Amino acid sequence: MPHDQVIATRRRTSYRLHVLSWRLAFLTGALAALTQFLRAQHVIGHPASVVVVVPLVAVFCGSLFLMLVTGAMQAAHFSVNPLGRGVVQRQVRFSRMLLVDLVTLPWSPNARR
């Protein structure tokens, strides 16, 4: 495999991990908030909420760490191969691309858009 293909594959993989870590952070945050809401409404008890929330917080922290690592990888890539002329334009274009891909990117790496 040529060097350029290897770099492109790694870049796509790190970007996909970045998008999936954002999705995982949103999902775990929403589930933890839902658990706390159900606890406040006395639907579930304190022990049940602890059993659910503690693993969710661990997964949330892991996804935040993964988000930071893959974000740094993306930042390093875009500093070499910029999307726009200036720093602000690059950040705006990447943010727009990320927001669109949070909704449209398939969960499976083998699935098509």
Structural topology:
Layout: H1 3-40, H2 46-80, H3 87-104
Helix pairs in contact: 1-2
Description:
It contains three helices and no strands. It is mainly α. Helix 1 runs antiparallel to helix 2. It is elongated. The two termini are 25 Å apart.
For the structure shown, list the relevant keywords.
single chain; 113 residues; mainly alpha; 3 helices
Summed up, what is this model?
This protein has 113 residues and is mainly α.
Structural class: mainly alpha
Number-wise, the strands total 0
In round numbers, the mean pLDDT is 80
**SSE string, helices as H and strands as E:** HHH
Which percent bin holds the helix content?
A: over 70%
Low-confidence stretches: none
Strand content: under 5%
C-alpha termini separation: 25 Å
Q: Shape from CA axes?
A: elongated
Please work out how many helical segments DSSP would assign. 3
- Give Rg in angstroms: 18 Å
Query: In this structure, how is the largest beta sheet organized?
Result: none
